[in-house]
C-alpha cells in the first residue's frame, strides 16, 4: 500500500519493473536503416534504463531481450542480435559491476552459442554478490517453456523421492522457476503500442500492473520510465534522501 509520500510501505525490498522492449525494427524502418540498427539503438536505451533504476527506487529490473519465438526471425537478424548480446555484455560488464548491479539470465541457455553462454556465466559470477540493483535478462525465454522446464525438474525430484506431490505449492513452483529468489514484478511496461504479454513472465505477472505505451523502445529513456512509475503511483519519492 502506498503512503502519502508515495513510498510503497509494503515493498521494503524495492520495486520490480519488467520491460518488453518492443519497436526496434519499426524505429529503424522509419529511418530507412536495417533492423539491427534499431537493436543497437535499443541496447543503448537498455543501458540508460538500468542506470536510472536506483534513482527511481527500482531495485529489480527484468528485460525481455530474446524470446523462444524470436528464432522465427531471419537468420541475419538472429546473428546480428546474438552478436549484439555478446558485444553488450563485454562492453558493459565492468561498469555494471562497479555500479553494484547483480546480473542474472533467465531462459533456456542450451541452444545459445558457446561464446555467449560463457560471457553470460562470467557476468553472473562476477556480479553475484552485488545488491544495489538486480538486473535480469530474459534470453531465449518463454513463460510457458519456463513452466514446462520447472515441471520436468519437479517430476524428476518426485521420481528421486526428494519431493512429495502433495507438498507442491506456489512456493515450490517459485523455487523451480528460472526466477527463483526474485520477487514478482510490480509493473510490466511494453513499448511500441502492442498490448500483448507475449509469453513473458507468465507465472510471475499474475498480480502485476501493465503499462502499454506507444513509444518505441529506442525512444524510451529515464523520463518515460519515471512517467510510467508515476502513472501507477509506484515512484519512490526520496526528495534527495538516501
Ligand atoms: C523487439 O523489437 C526487440 C528485440 C527482439 C530485441 C531486444 C534487444 C535489445 C533492445 C538489445 C538489448 C541488449 C541486451 C544485452 C539486454 P522488434 O524487433 O520486435 O521491433 P518491431 O516490432 O518494430 O519489429
What does this structure look like?
- The chain is of the alpha/beta class and 242 residues long.
- It is built from seven helices and six strands.
- The protein has helices at 24-30, 35-56, 75-98, 114-126, 143-159, 170-176, 222-231, and strands at 15-20, 58-67, 101-106, 133-141, 187-190, 209-212.
- It has a six-stranded parallel beta sheet, with helices on both faces.
- Helix 2 (35-56) runs parallel beside helix 3 (75-98) and helix 2 (35-56) crosses helix 7.
- Mean pLDDT is 93; it is low at 1-10.
- The site of farnesyl diphosphate has 19 residues, from helix 1, helix 2, strand 2 and helix 3.
Task: Compile the SSE list and pairings.
Layout: E1 15-20, H1 24-30, H2 35-56, E2 58-67, H3 75-98, E3 101-106, H4 114-126, E4 133-141, H5 143-159, H6 170-176, E5 187-190, E6 209-212, H7 222-231
Parallel strand pairs: 1-2, 1-5, 2-4, 3-4, 5-6
The structure holds farnesyl diphosphate.
Farnesyl diphosphate binds next to helix 1, helix 2, strand 2 and helix 3.
Short description:
The protein has 242 residues and is α/β, with parallel strands linked by helices.
